[in-house]
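Slide 14.
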Amino acid sequence: MAESHDLTALEQAAAIAGGELSSVELVEHHLTRVDALADTVGAFVTVTPELARAAARAADAVPADERGPLHGVPTAIKDLTLTAGVRTTFGSAAFADFVPPVDADVVRFMAAAGLVSLGKTTTSELGCSLYSEGLVAPPARNPWDLAYTAGGSSGGAAAAVAAGLVPVAQGSDGGGSLRIPASLCGLVGYKPSRGLVSGGPVGFGAYGLPTNGPIGRTVADVAALLDVLSRPVPGEPYLAPAPPAGGWLGSARAADPGPLRIGRFTAPMLADEPVHPDCLAAVDRAAALLTAAGHEVVEVPAPLGPTVWPLFEIVWYVLALAPVPPERESALLPLTRHLRARGAQVSAGTLTATLGELQAQVRLGARRTAGCDLLLCPTLAAPQAPLGWFTEGGDPAEDFDRQRRFSPYCAVFNVTGDPSVSLPVGVTAEGLPVGVLLTGRYGDDARLIGTAAQLEHSSGGWDRHPAIWRAVASANVNGSGVGRSAP
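Slide 15: predicted structure.
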């Protein structure tokens, strides 16, 4: 009999709605798994069991006709995301004891939808790197092989979902921070169109690069969480694209985008870097499946090239200048201090000129691929990276350059604002996941989600699990198969 964590997020909610499980039972089941595995995979900075139990009891008390598609389901919040009354460290020892007085908008939306957070997931310091190896929690490890990184900055979210600690999680993506961990951990990581999900109630929008978004095991789960996250909020700096009839979950369930013209490219965009054969093979497989589904897949030039890197680099330096109390600067990691030192040298005039040139490059890139509905490329230049590989040289400048070469695709679509999703299409000879990146036109999230779901179905499904999924014996997770109560 399947155990509770074997069910997708939507299946868990359906089990609650059907009376087979309660939210309290699901939360206890997943909390026991968190207790057993969270430190092993480095998934959580802070676990909030009593808050979760109280929220689960409240969820079970809500009348059936007031429940949404994810009501009562366990989840988790990234530690970059403000959570009132819960320690939020931003992945940094400089904020190890910080407790926000307010919730981020997305946290409010998740609670209102009946989702139950089990705590705060591990992230990179201030979201600055694509790995999650800080000082406030164990490093986020890939559940498929603990010798490898789970990525970042939403590394703990990916580790939690891939290890079966929660079925779906909130994250954010400023340069690939959802899609990179999803690719490494065999998950679906979705960066919505700019403006679709609120970044409030504080902050200035960070030039439109970062956005909140979902990570999960299936396209439908991710789309369901996107429905929760993408509520309109007054005062946001970017206009939100309109949702489709039936919501994003409706697009995933239909899985019928109609015949499309899909542009395929493999040339790295932010670095002149060789691409691993396994990453190329994953793109080939995705292209073949999309062609078999009736789409026209054509070779196109990459929208942007390595010449755009110096522009993106300047913006990333400036974004590292998050407010930090001066007396706590010394607690920051070497990479963060390096980025902030470079950012402090950027003048307002240079930043303004850089943003203007980036937008000019975005216009040129859009024209190069104007005849395509979607774009297909690798998520990463290599399938995996060992834990500690980025920092092993001790030079933060080398660390940052390794990140660029490892991930030369994702960040471009933060610059353009286009919706982009990493899908676990490929696998290495060792059985480790390999992602591909599917990217849509700005505001056309419905078509992108529908195509991703169609590709998932034609792939035979992606809900695969690493060996650690079964590493905790049933007796140690309350023996709770579907329909059985946890003591």
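Speaker note: Residues 30 and 165 are 6 Å apart (CA to CA).
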